[in-house]
Structure prediction request, 268 residues.
Amino acid sequence: MSDPTGGYRDFDFAVEFYDYQLWSQMMGDIDFYVDLARSLGDSALELASGTGRVLLPIARAGISVTGLDLSDPMLSRCREKLAEEPPEVQQRVTLVHGDMRRFDLGRTFPLVFIAFRSFQALLTTEDQMACLSCAHRHLQPEGRFVLNLFNPWLELLVNQAEDEEFGEMPPMTLPDGRRVVTRQRSYNRDFFRQTFEADIIHRVTHPDGRTERLVQSFPMRWLYRFEAEHLLYRCGFEVLSVYADFKKREVGSINPGELIFVCRPAVR
Prediction:
């Protein structure tokens, strides 16, 4: 069975590097989620909450937030970061070890969201619908559900060589002095199932000059805009808006951009 955490259960170095990776910082999504949480009420639920990259800023903004994640290493890192926060922030956070395809927290929230493409670690329609149905059950009638996917770049999927590394990020320097350069590659593309294997490749240079190559491998599934809208509809949602980025620009105005769905429970 594939790892539905995207490799964050099995690759400890991936958890260590996560908070320093610039592509997650470059998303610009934190203010979007914080502002939405503030506008909707006093609580929120993040599925696949990871190290608390989004969760902790929401708690700092005065919102009680529950984070659910399947990866023990990611939750452990989040707890370490939470321990450094003021007591009032710590009191607003609840962390749950659980699978976003099947969970029951016994309550509902005005905001439920899945950030930074974590949903795409689910490889089958059955798993995707199970996750969306759980999210729907935990959403208040007037609440909002937000789902972030990458917008499939067909030119890249079709034409890029499978042994080609791309997307090099600026080097990151860890607190212990290690310098890390990160690239990625995709391979084993299955255009029928819309899946591929992804490698996040970290080339690490230690302060003493020693080098190593660390690879985080995991499968992903891509979804097209209207396919995702159909899934959301089948699971009881009404799509209110679809954005290309967290500045709320229109889909198609950026190539390829993101797919950011803002939904509410459908009235039927």
Q: What stands out?
A: The chain has two domains: 12-151+223-265, 154-221. The first helix runs from residue 12 to 18.
